[in-house]
Design goal:
The chain is an alpha+beta fold. The strands form four sheets. Strands 4-5-10-11-12 form a five-stranded antiparallel β-sheet, with helices on one face.
């Protein structure tokens, strides 16, 4: 750019001629305007960068806070597991029934949050890996939508490591497997286990599970449930006589005694820990085998809280 007196010129890059741009004052104003625009753009990008960085920092702080809170709730859930184990250890091991303390749902409100647990007797279900085929085929009595072909696949696919494997391996419909707890409609999961020793606890088995025993009918199952409510079976040696006294036939007694017992050794402990801030909820599921005052953990996992 060339300035002559009070005028401003610029030399053409091709012809070399001077081009008149206007008064010198106008050129200076133009330069100042361009600098101002440039400064504004720089400030804009710096502001955006600062806002983005601040947002990322807030997100990271929030994530760390949630992670720490989740760890606290996980430890809280483990505390619930320990409480349940203590109750099971103190329980009378000679027989187990639904009136036992371990069968009562437990909840505790603390400053850190709400803690709860539920103990489920795995011996109240049939072991899908070990029961006779006839017992499995009786599942169709409870769930008519499960056909003989599905039962054949279950039998051919044994043993299973987890109960839900029957969904993929045997083609059991998910709705039939899980049922609907809100509508009190049981699913196949409420009948089976893979963790028990194969014997069924006659004191804790549901009506549907008792109906799976060959020759068992509704009246016999109802008689057992009605009697054990106030008079649980306490003596294995007297089980046959006690069942006969309830009106069961000799064949029914023989079938049931061969598949059942009066005590339990495998339990599923479900826990929930909900933060007092309501921002984190952690659930755990642990399956243990009771061996006197000691326990062997068969499965432990985190699970979704409803």
């Amino acid at each position: 750019m060339v300035i002559k007196k009070d005028f401003c010129y610029s030399r053409n890059a091709f012809s070399g001629n001077l081009i008149y741009l206007g008064p010198q004052m106008y050129c200076k104003r133009q330069n100042k305007g361009m600098i101002l625009v440039l400064v504004l753009w720089v400030m804009f990008f710096l502001s955006v960068s600062a806002i983005t960085l601040a947002f990322k920092n807030r997100v990271n702080i929030r994530l760390r806070s949630l992670s720490n809170e989740k760890m606290r709730m996980l430890n809280f859930s483990k505390e619930a597991c320990n409480r349940a184990l203590a109750v099971l250890a103190d329980d009378d091991h000679n027989f187990d029934c639904l009136a036992d303390l371990w069968n009562e749902n437990f909840s505790l409100q603390k400053d850190t949050g709400l803690l709860s647990y539920k103990v489920i007797d795995e011996d109240s279900f049939i072991n899908i890996n070990t029961v006779p085929e006839l017992v499995l085929r009786n599942i169709m009595i409870i769930f008519p939508d499960i056909g003989g072909e599905v039962i054949d696949k279950i039998i051919a696919s044994r043993p299973f490591n987890l109960e839900r494997e029957v969904i993929d391996t045997a083609g059991v419909d998910k709705n039939l497997f899980y049922g609907d707890d809100t509508a009190y409609n049981p699913g196949l999961k409420d009948l089976i286990t893979v963790f028990s020793d194969g014997k069924l606890n006659v004191n804790t088995a549901s009506r549907n599970v008792l109906m799976l025993v060959p020759t068992m009918n509704e009246s016999a199952a109802d008689a057992i449930i009605g009697w054990r409510k106030d008079n649980p079976f306490k003596d294995s040696a007297m089980l046959s006589a006690d069942l006969s006294a309830l009106g069961l036939s000799a064949v029914q007694v023989s079938e049931l005694v061969s598949l059942s017992k009066i005590s339990s050794s495998v339990f599923r402990i479900k826990t929930e820990a909900v933060s007092a801030k309501k921002c984190v909820a952690v659930g755990t599921e642990m399956i243990v085998r009771r061996q006197g005052q000691h326990f062997k953990v068969l499965l432990f996992k985190e699970c979704q809280v409803d």
